[in-house]
Write a structure and sequence with these properties.
single chain; alpha+beta; Alpha-Beta Plaits; eight-stranded antiparallel beta sheet; 35 helices; about 15% strand; repeat; PPR_rpt; TPR-like_helical_dom_sf
Length: about 850
């Protein structure tokens, strides 16, 4: 029953879409309001993207269980959307896609198809790969009807839709499907692929193609770069996306991104965040002529912000990859011709024979015509010689293959010339890394450094090219998770004549050893760093300290903390809090006091991240603060009270409340919501009501969360009189606020069987507060309880008092049939409404 009520809360609050062309001079404004759920932002952005609308600005807010987004959009020509049919279509698509219909609740972006077979591919990118794939499909009489191919960071991914050449429909023969999969796997494997090639043949239902490509490349870890950070900066200059993460109060992580603007950029970012299980609570998007700026306040679905350096680095890498995957790299070629079996195989073969590398491709067919777009470079990644393009166009036909404008043909700015100097170093790093991993696979156990690997390095002849940057590239790109190989290569390099490590190579080896928790080796290398007076980046120290804390090496973590030569505040509040909590928990009170002093003096915020599951530790920190005469702020108290409530330590939470106000520290909205929510949940509603009154006296305005949790608690305790009084206060405070919580309040009343109170409540509200959603909720609950006559009486009142609302209520009841587990009672109610109240709607519902 509770699950049915939860479904009902979502279902009755269907998305509301308002499209406005008058409030903004240069864009159409689309506002979407709905009950919040994970993935709803992606669904809305996906609809706008699929319709080729350009999002110039966006404002996102989905806190407190409600989702409200505003998008400023234009068409591809930069004009407002003025066509009435297009506007209506946008509205219907968003309301349908962002709704809660059963066909879409399973996963975001699922689309059914029985017309073709979907093939998903992933493997190492190389020149001619697409040509080989297309040749295999042509030989197996598979006609490519649609496809999209992405390459990024030496990896390739594709989603290809094929049909049987004879039948024109999906391929269903299991043996033939097995043959297709086997042959494509052989093509993708390559001779030196360090990652497993993947070929997946889909069932009739499949994921949204572009979202699926993001998922494939993410699973293939394309975000793990081959280049070192310094090299890629030189290579790409200002065109590289800039992604930064910062944890702030209220346990949000703020993500800011600056990059070149391009179509579908917001979709790519939101898609990646959603698939990584992060929720966007607030956000802002602003695009200029060239640059796009995006800022999101996020948490993981578990409610926590990003709390470790490893997680922070991974999120940054993944967002950078999301921005870059679809970036238009190379010369754009557009093919438009009659479709036929083998067409794509022939075209890509010509590209391969002329030494072109396909960086990205979009294949489509419609009405017997093929329209394909390719982004190409030469095999080294440089712009294509115009003479080669002319030769290819002569072979294919000048009218069939068009060259689109591409900036890669323009002269490169001076700063990009360094790329050609650095590129061979990256190639050497690739050869070294792959050779070491390949050779170590023959050892027992595998991936262990042995003397024979030195011979492998000598055969490569890489000593003349050896540099700290090269060592760092090899370790970061290939050996970071193979500590024995990383340390062996690092030591081998240090033994070569005339070579010495610097901070760049030390940082890479220290990160690798931290990842695998090789604490003895870490200690030795850190001593070397200290002797040589090398300066390490704060991110390396975060890596090391996090690893030591996870390995229960708390005292060692403290020693590293005091070796940091950059400002310790750069380590981040989360790490400082974790170290502080670990020191107190393990009894190193003297060390904890020093860390505490450092944090307090530098203004590092105290939070509950390090105290998760360790409330006693947090109390000890609080006592230390009092001994020093220091005053904890409201965020420290909130974190500690929240930790207490999470572990059902209500009495300590109340004592903290009293101590906080006695110390002169004023509570904020979150302070009250933490305790009101917990007290309401455990049935102490009198205490919750007292706090509610207290917050109003102190000038703290309740929000939807305050009212919803308090109303739920009062209904659970059957204190319906107080519940009505509290709801009336929400009406006095803000009509829109009252309207947003009304349907949920009705559900809580009905759950306790208080149908009469719910009906009187709705009948006593003015038209600007009541809604068709709330009335539909009550009627469905009455139908489920077999109170059909009661429901009819309520419908009679609606017909007499709010006749314009009756049709909307009826439609919502019809819509609920597809998702309820007990449709019979609703069918009975609908039939009664048709006969007695709404005879004009007999065509709207005829039964199932």
């Amino acid at each position: 029953m509770d699950d049915e009520y939860a479904k009902l809360i979502r279902r009755v609050n269907q998305p509301r879409v308002v499209i406005d062309n008058s409030s903004c001079e240069d864009a159409t404004v689309i506002q979407v309001d709905s009950v919040n759920k994970h993935g709803i932002l992606l669904e809305v952005v996906q609809v706008l993207t699929d319709m080729n609308l350009v999002i110039r600005k966006a404002y996102i807010s989905s806190d407190g269980g409600w989702f409200m987004d505003v998008f400023n959009v234009v068409d591809n020509d930069g004009n407002k959307i003025r066509d009435k049919e297009v506007i209506d279509y946008i509205q219907r698509r968003i309301e349908t896609s962002a709704g809660f219909f059963p066909s879409r609740r399973g996963s975001v972006g699922v689309m059914p198809s029985e017309e073709h077979t979907s093939i998903e591919l992933a493997g190492t990118d190389r020149p001619g790969l697409l040509s080989e794939v297309c040749a295999v499909l042509a030989d197996l009489h598979c006609n490519v009807v649609n496809a999209e191919i992405w390459t990024h960071n030496a990896r390739a991914a594709a989603v290809v839709h094929v049909t049987d050449d004879l039948t024109g429909s999906a391929i269903s023969d299991p043996k033939r499907l097995s043959t297709i999969k086997e042959l494509l796997c052989n093509v993708l494997k390559g001779s030196d692929d360090l990652k497993t090639a993947k070929t997946v043949l889909s069932a009739p239902g499949f994921m949204h193609r572009e979202r699926r490509l993001h998922q494939i490349m993410f699973a293939d870890r394309d975000y793990e770069r081959v280049e070192r950070a310094g090299v890629r900066t030189a290579q790409d200059g200002s065109s590289r996306p800039q992604v930064t993460l910062l944890n702030i109060e209220k346990d949000y992580t703020v993500v800011t991104m600056r990059s070149k603007d391009r179509p579908k950029l917001l979709f790519d970012i939101v898609c990646t965040l959603t698939d990584m299980q992060y929720v966007v609570f607030h956000g802002m998007v602003n695009t200029g002529r060239m640059e796009a700026y995006q800022e999101f306040y996020i948490r993981h679905v578990d409610g926590l912000p990003i709390s470790s350096e490893a997680e922070r680095v991974r999120v940054i890498q993944c967002l950078e990859a999301a921005i870059e995957r679809r970036a238009s790299e190379g010369l754009e070629l557009e093919l438009f011709t009659d479709d036929r079996l083998g067409l794509l195989s022939d075209i890509t073969r010509i590209f391969r024979e002329n030494s072109l590398c396909i960086r990205r491709a979009l294949i489509s067919t419609k009405g017997g015509k093929a329209k394909d777009t390719f982004y190409v470079t030469d095999v080294t990644g440089n712009p294509v010689d115009p003479k080669i393009i002319d030769s290819i166009r002569r072979q294919i036909g000048h009218t069939l293959l068009q060259v689109k404008h591409d900036k890669s043909l323009a002269p490169k700015p001076p700063h990009q010339e360094t790329t050609m100097v650095m590129r061979p170093v990256t190639d050497i790093a690739t050869r070294i890394g792959r050779a070491l991993i390949s050779a170590s696979n023959h050892a027992i156990p595998t991936r262990i450094w042995t003397p024979s690997l030195e011979q492998t390095l000598h055969r490569l002849g890489c000593r003349d090219s050896l540099s700290p940057s090269l060592v760092a590239q090899v370790i970061d790109s290939f050996l970071s998770t193979h500590h024995s190989l990383a340390l062996g290569f690092f030591n081998w390099a240090s033994q070569q004549p005339g070579f010495s490590h610097d901070s760049v190579s030390y940082q890479s080896i220290l990160k690798s050893l931290s990842f695998s928790r090789q604490f003895n080796a870490l200690e030795i290398l850190l001593k070397q760093v200290k002797v040589q007076k090398l300066s390490l980046d704060s991110s390396v120290y975060r890596f090391i300290i996090s690893s030591l804390l996870k390995g229960k090496k708390t005292q060692n973590a403290f020693w590293v903390f005091y070796e940091v030569n950059s400002p310790r505040t750069e380590l981040g509040a989360d790490l400082c809090n974790s170290l502080l909590a670990a020191l107190v928990s393990d009894g190193y009170h003297g060390h904890a006091e020093k860390v505490f002093d450092e944090m307090f003096q530098k203004g590092v915020a105290f939070n509950s991240i390090g105290f998760a599951g360790r409330v006693r530790v947090a109390y000890e920190v609080l006592q230390e603060m009092r001994k020093k005469g220091l005053a904890p702020d409201v965020f420290f108290y909130n974190s500690l009270m929240e930790a207490c409530c999470r572990e059902d330590l209500v009495r300590p939470a109340k004592r903290l409340w009293d101590e906080m106000f006695a110390s002169g520290c004023r509570g904020n909205l979150n302070t009250y919501n933490i305790l009101i929510g917990k007290l309401s949940k455990i049935g102490e509603v009198d205490e919750a009501l007292r706090l509610f009154q207290h917050m109003r006296e102190k000038g703290v305005t309740p929000d939807a969360t305050t009212y919803t949790t308090l109303l739920q608690g009062l209904c659970q305790e059957s204190n319906f009189e107080s519940a009505i009084a509290i709801f009336n206060k929400s009406v006095e405070q803000d009509v829109m606020l009252a309207q947003s919580i009304l349907s949920t309040f009705v559900i809580h009343l009905c759950r306790k069987g208080q149908f009469l109170i719910a009906s009187k409540l709705l009948c006593g509200l003015t038209s600007d507060i009541t809604s068709s959603d709330a009335h539909a909720v009550l009627l469905k609950c009455l139908a489920d309880a077999k109170e059909i006559q009661f429901a009819i009486k309520h419908v009679d009142w609606v017909r007499e008092t709010l006749p314009l609302m009756l049709q909307a209520i009826y439609n919502k009841l019809v819509a609920s049939l597809s998702s309820t587990s007990r449709p019979d009672s609703i069918e009975q109610l609908l039939q009664a409404i048709q006969v007695k109240c709404l005879p004009d709607c007999t065509e709207a519902y005829t039964g199932y």
